[in-house]
């Protein structure tokens, strides 16, 4: 006689009802999942982790490194989990849209900044070219300045030399004037013709004086 545990008809019936109930719930969940699809395909890693948690809650499977267990969830609990997932998906979609808008604005600002940088670079290049041109002009002016200074120095030397010649000429002129005065003084000291003739008893009359004309003395015998 077998004394092992016996499975009663009631237990078998309860197990069958439980399996049928689980299958019906799973089919209902699959239909609900097909009728309500999530329209957001882009979400971050946090959304993925949250989605995985909700899927584990729907299937009733809890996994870990050490153990795994099966839990029975009611349809209301599955519906609530699905509702939470939909809300979370909507939130992730809104966040994603905001991030897209932010990225679009940042890209627009980036393009504007790159344009400004390009304009500033062009202006900087123009400024550098202008600076180089100014440097070249300054170098040329410095060269001209040195040449002009050399010419001025040469002209100053010529002026100094001319001034020296002028001083020498002035000295010669002064000497000539002094010589003339000395000559006049010597001539003054020399005896004049009137003085010489007077000395010998001759009355001197100027020959340059106009004489009166005597008609009677015109014809002399």
Number of strands: 2
Q: How much strand?
A: under 5%
> Oligomeric form of this entry?
single chain
Low-confidence stretches: 1-10, 31-49, 54-70, 196-202
Largest sheet, in brief, is: 2 strands, antiparallel
Mean of all residue-level pLDDT scores: 71
With helices defined by DSSP (H or I, 4 residues minimum), what is the helix count?
4
Please state the CA-atom Rg, rounded to the nearest Å: 69 Å
Protein name: Gag-protease polyprotein
Keywords: Coiled coil, Hydrolase, Protease
Coiled coil: 131-172
Region (Disordered): 1-21
Search tags:
74% helix; 4 helices; mainly alpha; two-stranded antiparallel sheet; disordered N terminus; 221 residues
Question: Can you describe this structure?
Answer:
This protein is mainly α and 221 residues long. The protein has a domain at 17-104. 74% of the residues lie in helices and 3% in strands. The protein contains four helices and two strands, in the order H-H-E-E-H-H. The protein has a two-stranded antiparallel sheet. Helix 2 runs antiparallel to helix 3. It is rod-shaped and about 185 Å long. Mean pLDDT is 71; it is low at 1-10, 31-49, 54-70 and 196-202.
């Amino acid at each position: 006689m077998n004394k092992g545990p016996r499975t009663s008809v009631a237990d078998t019936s309860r197990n069958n009802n439980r399996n049928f109930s689980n299958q019906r719930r799973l089919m209902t969940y699959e239909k609900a999942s097909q009728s309500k699809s999530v329209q957001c395909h882009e979400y971050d890693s946090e959304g993925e982790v949250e989605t995985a948690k909700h899927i584990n809650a729907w299937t009733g499977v809890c996994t870990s490194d050490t153990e795994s267990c099966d839990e029975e969830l009611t349809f209301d609990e599955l519906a609530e989990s699905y509702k939470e997932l939909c809300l979370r998906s909507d939130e992730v979609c809104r966040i994603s849209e905001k991030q897209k808008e932010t990225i679009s604005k940042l890209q627009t600002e980036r393009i504007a900044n790159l344009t400004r940088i390009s304009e500033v670079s062009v202006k900087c290049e123009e400024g550098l070219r202008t600076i180089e041109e100014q440097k070249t002009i300054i170098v040329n002016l410095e060269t001209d300045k040195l040449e002009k200074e050399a010419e001025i120095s040469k002209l100053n030397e010529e002026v100094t030399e001319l001034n020296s010649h002028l001083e020498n000429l002035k000295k010669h002129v002064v000497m000539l004037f002094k010589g003339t005065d000395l000559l006049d003084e010597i001539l003054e000291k020399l005896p004049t013709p009137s003085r010489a003739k007077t000395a010998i008893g001759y009355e001197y009359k100027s020959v340059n004086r106009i004489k009166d004309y005597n008609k009677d003395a015109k014809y002399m015998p």
